[in-house]
Write the structure tokens for this entry.
Amino acid sequence: MLRFLSVLFLSLLSLAGPSFAASKADVEAQFRRWLQDDLWPEARQAGVSAASFKAAFADVKLNWDLPDLAPPGFPRAKERKQSQAEFSSPGSYFSEKRLQGLAATGRSLASAHASTLKRIERSYGVPGPVVLAIWGRESGFGRAKIPHPIMDVLATKAFMSTRPELFRRELIAALHILQSGDVKEAEMRGSWAGAMGQPQFLPSSFLKYAVDFDGDGRRDIWNSVPDSLASIANYLLQKGWQNGRDWGFEVSIPGGVSCAQEGPDLARPIADWAGMGITRVSGKAFPSAERSASGMMLVPAGTHGPGFVVTPNFYAIKEYNNSDLYALFIGNLADRIASGGGAFRGEWGDVGKMLRSDVLGMQKALVASGYDVGKVDGLPGYKTRRSLGDWQAKNGLTPTCFPDPSLTAKLR
Ligand code: CA
């Protein structure tokens, strides 16, 4: 093994060439100067002491293997062409095998941590299965190996990445965490994107939402299960979780009811949706406490996939990761953990092959006709979906509220 590695190392060296190695060393030297001359004054201004600044950076190294780096004096790496990315139906996001695995582990951990989860529900009003679902999705219930010393990631990205301002803010937040004594630098690990510990909090989120729930005086989202779970629940509560409400329901939407009624800005009492003939696929009625409260239509694949009536709690979950599919994944997993539920009943249809640039083209055409599509980014969020549905209805087509290849030609 050692022999193999040294051969590999030598061949890498010969590929890289001596000038490359020299300029890397130069960047390392620039990094040290940057820490002292550029970052330190800002950290001091923000209330970080000289001693804790020095200790925090004692072992920090630039990590040259991270994505999206822009080292000074190096040619810029080619940015991946997002527009050429393939665009397809959301169905592949919901791997049945993965969901079943997470649900089985989640159910066994629900009993192992039953008393902690009960206490969390009393304190934050967030049901245990929802907290478990996020824990499972983010870090495999704390079992996933968390790859990087977070200070290496944050310092590297603040110094030489394509988004230095964001990571500079997070680096200053991380210095505050270390100074608070919640965690030692060697234990403060996270992802290549700066998300830390079992709940995968950015440092700024840690400062706002992490809590000490096992009572040892430290907020430890790396080693303490009670701290990790309560921090997730506190995050959701602070983002608007409503005690006693569900996240949402899979529904069947009658043909005559337009799919173009999605979005948190088009909320109605759930009884109104029911009055249009929308029913739960489970065959059960909407719970009576939910009927008078507000709900929103959600059709992530338009008429090509399952439909939902969601509650404000769905949008609290979306604050964890701003994606309808992520929040649906968490909701579905939570239901499986709570009551052994299965996959969504509605099928994710195949909408045919498209590129993100095709969706971008449709968005530009809609905007040119005065429609609001939200961000023009080649991703069909709810504003794009419902504007597409409105455009279809206005042009004599049956609204599907989702891009498909037949629309690329019509909408340009
Ligand atoms: Ca603790």
Summary: Residues 1-18 have pLDDT under 50 and may be disordered. The pocket of calcium ion is lined by residues 212, 214, 216, 218, 220, 224, 227 (CB under 6 Å). The chain has 17 helices and nine strands.
